[in-house]
Amino acid sequence: MLWNLDDLPIFLAVAEHQGISSAADYLGMAKSSVSKAITRLEKGLGVRLFERNSRQFRITHEGEAFYQHSLAVLERAHETEAAMSALSGKPSGKLVVSMPMSFGREIFSPHLARFRQLYPDIELELNISSQSVDVIRDSIDIAVVVGAPKDSELILKNLYTSQLLCVASPGYIQSLTNEILSPEDITDHIQVIEKRYANMALPYRTSVSNGRLKPPASAIKINDPCSVRDAVAAGCGIGLIPDQYCHRFIQDGQLLPILPGLEFHRGISLISAVYASRRTTAHKTALFLDFLGDICKQLPQKSGPSAG
Length: 308
Fold this sequence. Notes:
Blueprint: H1 8-17, H2 20-27, H3 31-45, E1 50-52, E2 57-59, H4 61-88, E3 93-99, H5 101-108, H6 112-118, E4 122-128, E5 142-146, E6 155-162, E7 164-168, H7 170-175, E8 192-194, E9 202-205, E10 210-213, E11 220-222, H8 225-233, E12 239-242, H9 247-251, E13 256-257, E14 263-264, E15 269-275, H10 283-297
Parallel strand pairs: 3-4, 3-5, 8-11
Antiparallel strand pairs: 1-2, 5-15, 6-15, 7-12, 7-13, 9-10, 9-14
């Protein structure tokens, strides 16, 4: 064979990211190294894989065919690695996991030491970002997502059902001149809100009524629920925050629930792990999914002392 198997992941990155520069950025490699790998493959295969000049970059017909075969080769390599890992009883190899910033920081990261102790031979690469990812395109083994994934071909494992809690700091509650008796009393006290809820009229229900709560346009909008929580804990009004990020603060007395019987329909979010079906056989993938599931089972349901 006149070409090197080690160049396959580089070729796939160039094809999927539609260019040598973008593939180099994704792989963390020098552009010249990526270019040389493609040149080696083309020379070894005796075909042109990409048409590239100063104006355009596109994959050739031969490149398309080689892309499909390359995917199959790497899939078999993953399956072989998984089979050997299972036989040895020691899960090993690289595992790329993506998760939202708040989930990674607040829920998963405190358990990293335990994961390391349990599976020292798994090379975990954890990508924490507020940006959505494409599991196939970005070569992600497992992605933690909020809500249903757009790609129906992905396998989904439910981890946790998150609900919005209405909370405030004890100091802010003490400063109120009027008692909070109904959801309508909350609106004027929302000073900071997670961006995805800012323009919603959130349907709610209580034991005595149903309605909609519309956050004020003047509220500060943030794309991170933990930043909203921290601001509310510091006295910035009443906040609507996913319950998994409130429990510790409620237990420590930094936050108190407002109207604990209040439930938001649109504030219910499913937290799931998604992965590509072609990677379901990997031993390390199954172990990580179980580890994630155990962490989420430890999250308490909404509880704590109430106010209002």
